[in-house]
């Protein structure tokens, strides 16, 4: 397990607010859901979960339309 594989970012009004890195995909997804509940009301909030090893964006909130 790579300790910094899953990277979670939160931006508000286009500015970085928080970053977090986890080695476990399950833990990172749990944090993603917690951040949505806790910080989703920030102006123009955007939360992204990225797999740093593959470069794949695993999920975004709000979802692209």
List the helices and strands and how they pair.
Layout: E1 6-12, E2 15-22, H1 25-39, E3 46-51, E4 56-61
Antiparallel strand pairs: 1-2, 1-3, 3-4
Describe the structure.
This protein is of the alpha+beta class. The protein has one domain (6-61). The chain is built from 1 helix and 4 strands; from the N terminus they run E-E-H-E-E. It has one helix at residues 25-39; strands at residues 6-12, 15-22, 46-51, 56-61. It has a 4-stranded antiparallel sheet with strand order 2-1-3-4, covered by helices on one side.
Compact description:
The protein has 1 helix and 4 strands. With 65 residues, the protein is α+β, with helices and mostly antiparallel strands. The chain has one domain (6-61).
Structural class: alpha+beta
Shape summary? globular
- Major sheet: arrangement of strands: 2-1-3-4
* Overall pLDDT confidence: 94
